[in-house]
TrEMBL record:
Domain of life: Eukaryota
Bilayer topology annotation: Single-pass membrane protein
Keywords assigned by UniProt, alphabetized: ATP-binding, Kinase, Leucine-rich repeat, Membrane, Nucleotide-binding, Phosphoprotein, Receptor, Repeat, Serine/threonine-protein kinase, Signal, Transferase, Transmembrane, Transmembrane helix
Subcellular location: Membrane
Source organism of the structure: Deinandra increscens subsp. villosa
SUPFAM superfamilies xref list: L domain-like (SSF52058), Protein kinase-like (PK-like) (SSF56112)
GO molecular function annotations of the record: ATP binding; protein serine/threonine kinase activity
Protein name per its UniProtKB record: Protein kinase domain-containing protein
Residues making up the signal peptide according to the UniProt record: 1-25
A Pfam family per the record: Malectin_like
Annotated binding of ATP, by residue: 597
C-alpha cells in the first residue's frame, strides 16, 4: 500500500512522458518541467498553441487551494496556463519543490507566471513576495486583474532541488498560475551567469507587432515579445535567416524582422530605466542583415551605451545571425541609452533584430546538502507526514527550518542535518533505510510511534550519532551488535523498550492483524485502479495529441514550391485577374478552390509588398479579411495563395453592365468591409492601416460575404500618437486621403477617408472621380452639390429605382460625408462607422420585412377568400 501510493504520481507522469515520446517523437521537452498550477490534480494536457505538455501542480506542493480566474477575464487570447491558479490563504510561506532530472550544475531558465483575474471575487490586487529557495527573488505586484505578469531568471542550480516559495507579506493572499523550467544547453548565457543569476528585464523581437514567439520556434521556450520602436522602419524577410542553436541566438522567426531608423542618417536609440538604480545590466544584442545589399552598399555601425563606445565598427551578416553581449556587468547608471550609429563609410542605416536585457541577481544562501535533503523528502513521503512547515529547503532560510530538524550552518560548507526528532508522529512500518545517509546526524528521536520490524544495523554506521531514542515502538528482535557496542563504550546513549518490558497492548492482537490483512487486500485494487487510470490518461493524451495533429495539418499555413504552385493552378491555365503586381490564377488544393497571385517580374517594390502582405496575413485572421492559404517564395517565383472568392470584387458588381445589387446587399457588403477594417484598426495591436481601400479590393465569396484583400500596402505602426510618416505616398487616386497626400501622415483616419469614398461610390453608383469636359470632379464634391438640393433620390443610384428605406439612405450618405471630411480628427472611427452602418441595415431590413409582411398578409387574404368565400 505504502509503496504504491508513493509511486502512483510518478507512474502517471512516466506514462505520459512515454506516450508523448511515442506520439510526439520530434518534440524535445526532456529538459522542460511545465506546471499549470490549479488544474485538476494529476491531470495533464498539451497546450493547443505552444504544444507544450503541462502537468498539474499537485505533485510539487501539498498546500493551498485551487481556483479559476473569473470567466470575464478568460478571453480567447489568454494563455490556458493562467486561467487556473493555486492560492495560499494559510501559512506565511508555501513552496513548490521541483527536482529536475538533469540535476545540479546545469543552467536553467525558471519562469513563474501570475494573473489575478479576480479569482477570489474580492477585486483586490494582492502583493506578495516570491523566493527562490531561501533567497528573495522579487515582489509580485499587479496593475490590473487582467494583466498577467511573469518573472524569469536564468540560474545555475547549486542543488538538485528547486524551491519556488510564495511568501505572504500581509498585503494579500499569495497565488501562482504557472511554473516553467527549461534546461538551457551548452554555453548559453554561460559567461554572464558566472557573475550570478540573470533576472530578465526585457526580451524583445523588433519590427513585428503580433504574437510572442516561444516554443516550438524557440527550442528553449524563451518568450520574445513583439516590439515596434517609434521612428523606425520595419524590415522583414521570408528568406531563411541562419541562427546557431549553440550560441544564444534567437530563433529564425525572431531574426527575420528588424528595425532601422526612418531617416538614413539617423541612429537607433533605445532607452530604458532600471527598476532599481543599483541594478547591473547585461545586454545581448542580435543582428542579421535581412535586406539584400547591392554591390556598392555597406551597412556598418558602432554601438554606444550611454554615449560610451561599446563595440564597432560592425557589419551584420547577410541572413545570418550575430550576437554581441556584455562579458561583464555594464556600468551602473540611473537610465540607459543604447545608440547604434552608422559609420561614415556606411551607406545604409543601422539595424537591430532583437535585444535581451538582464540584471544581475544574487541568490547567495546555500541550500541543504542534497543527500540530507533527499533523506528528508523520502521520510516525508514514506511516512506520509502531514507537516505543514515541511516545505521548501529543510534547513534554509533558518527562520523556516523544518519542524523537528536541527541543522549545522557553516560558512564554507552546505547546511547539514544534525538532529531529527520524529517523536509521536504516528510513523509506522520499518525505519526508512534512507536514514543511513544522514551521515552528520548526532541526535535521532523516533520514540512513541508505531514503528515495527528489527532495529537496522546501519544505525551503528552513523559515526556522529550520540543520542538514539527508539522507545515506544513495536520493534522486534535484539539491538544490533554494533549499536550495543557503542552503548557499551559509552559513545551512544540509547533508549529502547526491550521485548520483556514492552507494553503487551502494543504487540500484535487479533484486531490489528485483521486490519493489516484488510490493507493487503486493498493493494491490488488500488493498483489496478491506478493502472486503469494510467491507461485512461495515456489514451486521452494520445487522442488529444492526435486530434490536434489532424487539426494542425488542415489549417497549417504552408510554403509551396513553384512546381506545387504549377500543379495547383494546372500550369496557370485560368486567369482570374491582373493587377499592378502580377496575375491572379485559379487553383485547386485537394478539393478546395484557391486564388493564386503570382508576382510579375521581380521589382523590388513588388517584392517588399509581397513580403509585407504574407507577413501580415500569417498573423491576422478575421471573417472579413481574406485568408491566406499559403505562399511560394522560390528564388525567381513569388506568389500568394488565398481562399477563392467566387463572386469577384465589389467594383465589378457596381459597374454599368452587371446585374445590380439591391440596397440591403450593398449595405451588407459595406458593413462586412467595415467590420474587417474595424478589426485592423482596433483589434490589432498596433493598429494596421490598409492604405488601399477601394471597390476592387473588396472581394465577395459565394454567399456575397465581403472580405478585404490586397494588404500589400498595409502598414502596422506604433500606437499612442498613431501617426506614421511614410516615405512614399501610395494608394489609389480618388480614394487617397488628401491630408495624407499633403502631409505624408498616415493614420487610421486615412482608411476612414477611403472607406467614405467607397461608401459614396456604393450609394451613388458613380465612380470616385468623374471627368467632366475640362474638369475632374471628386465624388464628395458631386454629392455635396446634390445634398444642397435635399432630395435623396437624386443622390442614390438610380438603378435602385427608389427601392430603399429613405432614413437608411440619408444616414448612409451623412456617414459617408463625415468619413470624407477634410480634417482627419472629425472623421468617425471605424467603430463608429460599423455602428452607423448596422443601424442603416436594420432600418432597411425592417422596411423589407414590413413590405414582405404586407405582401404575405394580402396573399393569405386572397387565399382565404378563394377557399372560404365569405358570405357577403
Ligand atoms: C484545444 O482546441 C480544441 C479545438 O480547437 C478545443 O476544443 C479545446 O478546448 C482546446 N483546448 C484547450 C486546453 O484550450
Ligand atoms: C504598473 O503601473 C506602474 C505605475 O503606473 C508602472 O510604473 C508599471 O510599469 C506598470 N507595470 C506594468 C507591468 O504595466
Ligand atoms: C520620434 O521622433 C519625434 C520627432 O522627431 C521625436 O519627438 C520623438 O522623441 C522620437 N521618439 C523617440 C522614441 O525617439
Ligand atoms: C547624410 O549624411 C551625409 C554625410 O554626412 C550627407 O552627405 C547627406 O546629405 C546626409 N543626408 C541627409 C538626408 O541628411
Ligand atoms: C535596490 O537594490 C538594493 C540592493 O539589491 C536593495 O538593497 C534595495 O532595497 C533596492 N531598492 C528598492 C527600492 O527596491
Ligand atoms: C550618433 O550619431 C548622432 C548623429 O548621427 C550624433 O548626434 C550622436 O552624438 C552619435 N552618438 C554617439 C554616441 O556617438
Ligand atoms: C572607409 O573606407 C575606406 C576605403 O575602403 C577605408 O580606407 C577607410 O579606412 C574607411 N574608414 C573608416 C572610418 O572605416
Ligand atoms: C566548517 O567546516 C569545516 C570543514 O568541515 C571546518 O573545518 C570548519 O571549522 C567549520 N567552520 C565552522 C565555523 O564551523
Ligand atoms: C544514499 O545516498 C546515495 C548517494 O546520494 C544514494 O545513491 C543512495 O541511494 C542513498 N541511499 C538510500 C538508502 O537512500
Ligand atoms: C499506533 O499504536 C497505538 C497504540 O498501539 C494505537 O492506538 C494507534 O492507533 C496506532 N496508530 C496507527 C496510525 O496505527
Amino acid at each position: 500500500m505504502k509503496l504504491f501510493q508513493g509511486c502512483l504520481p510518478i507512474l502517471i507522469l512516466f506514462g505520459l512522458v512515454l506516450t508523448s515520446v511515442l506520439v510526439h517523437a520530434q518534440d524535445d521537452q526532456s529538459g522542460f518541467i511545465s506546471i499549470d498550477c490549479g488544474i485538476v490534480e494529476r491531470s495533464t494536457y498539451t497546450d493547443n498553441v505552444t504544444k507544450i505538455n503541462y502537468v498539474s501542480d499537485a505533485d510539487f506542493i501539498d498546500s493551498g487551494e485551487i481556483h479559476n480566474i473569473l470567466s470575464i477575464y478568460n478571453s480567447f487570447d489568454v494563455d490556458t496556463q493562467i486561467t487556473t491558479l493555486r492560492s495560499f490563504p494559510q501559512n506565511t510561506r508555501n513552496c513548490y519543490t521541483l527536482k529536475p532530472t538533469q540535476g545540479k550544475g546545469n543552467r536553467y531558465l525558471i519562469r513563474a507566471r501570475f494573473m489575478y483575474g479576480d479569482y477570489d471575487f474580492k477585486g483586490q490586487l494582492p502583493e506578495f513576495d516570491v523566493y527562490l529557495g531561501p533567497d528573495y527573488w522579487d515582489t509580485i505586484r499587479f496593475n490590473s486583474s487582467s494583466k498577467p505578469t511573469n518573472r524569469e531568471i536564468i540560474h545555475v542550480l547549486s542543488s538538485d532541488y528547486i524551491h519556488v516559495c510564495l511568501v505572504n507579506t500581509g498585503r494579500g493572499t499569495p497565488f501562482i498560475s504557472a511554473i516553467e523550467l527549461r534546461l538551457l544547453a551548452g554555453d548559453m548565457y554561460k559567461e554572464s551567469t558566472e557573475f550570478g543569476s540573470l533576472y530578465l528585464f526585457s526580451r524583445v523581437n523588433f519590427g513585428t507587432a503580433f504574437t510572442t514567439v516561444r516554443y516550438e520556434a524557440d527550442k528553449y521556450d524563451r518568450l520574445w515579445s513583439p516590439l515596434l520602436w517609434p521612428n523606425s522602419t520595419y524590415l522583414y524577410t521570408l528568406d531563411k535567416v541562419y541562427t546557431s542553436l549553440s550560441a544564444n541566438d534567437p530563433p529564425e522567426e525572431v531574426m527575420s524582422s528588424a528595425i532601422t531608423p526612418e531617416y538614413p542618417n539617423a541612429s537607433i536609440n533605445i532607452n530604458w530605466s532600471p527598476h532599481n538604480s543599483t541594478d547591473k545590466f547585461f545586454m545581448y544584442m542580435h543582428f542579421a542583415d535581412i535586406e539584400i545589399l547591392k554591390r556598392n552598399q555597406l551597412r556598418e555601425f558602432n554601438i554606444y551605451l550611454n554615449g560610451n563606445y561599446w563595440i564597432g565598427p560592425f557589419s551584420p551578416f547577410n541572413h545570418s545571425t550575430v550576437t554581441t553581449y556584455s562579458t561583464e556587468p555594464e556600468t551602473v547608471a540611473p537610465t540607459y541609452t543604447l545608440t547604434i550609429n552608422k559609420t561614415k563609410n556606411s551607406t545604409l542605416p543601422p539595424i537591430i533584430n532583437a535585444l535581451e536585457l538582464y540584471t544581475l541577481k544574487q541568490f547567495p544562501q546555500k541550500q541543504t546538502d542534497d543527500q540530507d535533503a533527499a533523506v528528508l523528502w523520502s521520510i516525508k513521503s514514506t511516512y506520509k507526514l502531514n507537516t505543514k512547515n515541511w516545505q521548501g529547503d529543510p534547513c534554509t532560510p533558518p527562520e523556516f527550518v523544518w519542524e523537528g530538524i536541527g541543522c549545522n550552518y557553516n560558512d564554507t560548507e552546505l547546511p547539514r542535518i544534525v538532529s531529527l526528532n520524529l517523536s509521536s508522529r504516528g510513523l509506522n512500518g520499518g525505519i526508512d533505510p534512507g536514514v543511513a545517509n544522514l551521515t552528520m546526524i548526532h541526535t535521532l528521536d523516533l520514540s512513541n510511534n508505531n514503528l515495527t520490524g528489527t532495529v537496522p544495523n546501519f544505525l551503528s554506521e552513523l559515526n556522529f550519532l550520540k543520542v538514539l531514542v527508539l522507545k515506544g515502538n513495536d520493534f522486534v528482535g535484539p539491538i544490533p551488535a554494533g549499536l550495543q557496542a557503542k552503548v557499551d563504550k559509552g559513545s551512544l546513549s540509547l533508549s529502547f523498550d526491550d521485548e520483556s518490558t514492552s507494553d503487551p497492548a502494543s504487540s500484535c492482537d487479533k484486531n490489528t492483524c485483521k486490519n493489516k490483512k484488510g490493507n493487503k487486500i486493498i493493494v491490488p485494487v488500488t493498483a489496478s485502479v491506478a493502472f486503469l487510470f494510467l491507461i485512461l490518461i495515456s489514451f486521452i493524451a494520445v487522442w488529444m495529441i492526435k486530434k490536434q495533429n489532424e487539426h494542425g495539418l488542415d489549417i497549417r499555413k504552408k510554403q509551396y514550391t513553384y512546381s506545387e504552385v504549377q500543379s495547383i493552378t494546372d500550369n496557370f491555365s485560368v486567369v482570374l485577374g491582373r493587377g499592378g503586381f502580377g496575375t491572379v490564377y485559379h487553383g485547386i488544393i485537394g478539393d478546395t478552390q484557391v486564388a493564386v497571385k503570382m508576382l510579375s517580374g521581380s521589382s523590388l517594390q513588388g517584392d517588399k509588398e509581397f513580403q509585407a502582405e504574407i507577413y501580415l496575413l500569417l498573423d491576422i485572421h478575421h471573417k472579413n479579411l481574406i485568408s491566406l492559404v499559403g505562399y511560394c517564395n522560390d528564388e525567381s517565383h513569388k506568389g500568394i495563395i488565398y481562399e477563392f472568392m467566387a463572386n469577384g470584387n465589389l467594383a465589378s458588381h457596381l459597374s454599368e453592365n452587371s446585374s445590380f445589387l439591391n440596397w440591403e446587399e450593398r449595405l451588407q457588403i459595406v458593413c462586412d468591409a467595415a467590420h474587417g477594417l474595424e478589426y485592423m484598426h482596433h483589434g490589432c495591436k498596433p493598429p494596421i492601416v490598409h492604405r488601399d481601400i477601394k471597390g476592387t479590393n473588396i472581394l465577395l465569396n459565394e454567399s456575397f460575404q465581403a472580405k478585404l484583400a490586397d494588404f500589400g500596402l498595409s502598414k502596422a505602426f506604433p500606437t499612442e500618437g498613431g501617426t506614421h510618416i511614410s516615405t512614399a505616398v501610395a494608394g489609389t487616386p480618388g480614394y487617397l486621403d488628401p491630408e495624407y497626400y499633403t502631409s505624408n501622415r498616415l493614420t487610421e483616419k486615412s482608411d476612414v477617408y477611403s472607406f467614405g469614398v467607397l461608401l459614396l461610390v456604393v450609394i451613388t453608383g458613380h465612380s470616385a472621380i468623374t471627368k467632366n469636359e475640362n474638369d475632374i470632379i471628386h465624388i464628395s464634391r458631386l454629392v455635396n452639390l446634390k445634398l444642397a438640393e435635399g432630395d435623396i433620390n437624386n443622390i442614390v443610384d438610380p438603378k435602385l429605382q427608389g427601392n430603399f428605406d429613405i432614413n437608411s439612405a440619408w444616414k448612409a450618405v451623412e456617414l459617408a460625408m463625415a468619413c470624407v471630411a477634410h480634417t482627419p480628427s472629425i472623421r468617425p472611427t471605424m467603430n463608429g462607422v460599423v455602428m452607423e452602418l448596422n443601424d442603416c441595415l436594420v432600418a432597411e431590413r425592417a422596411r423589407r420585412e414590413n413590405k414582405a409582411k404586407k405582401l404575405t398578409g394580402l396573399m393569405s387574404l386572397n387565399l382565404e377568400s378563394a377557399y372560404d368565400p365569405t358570405p357577403i
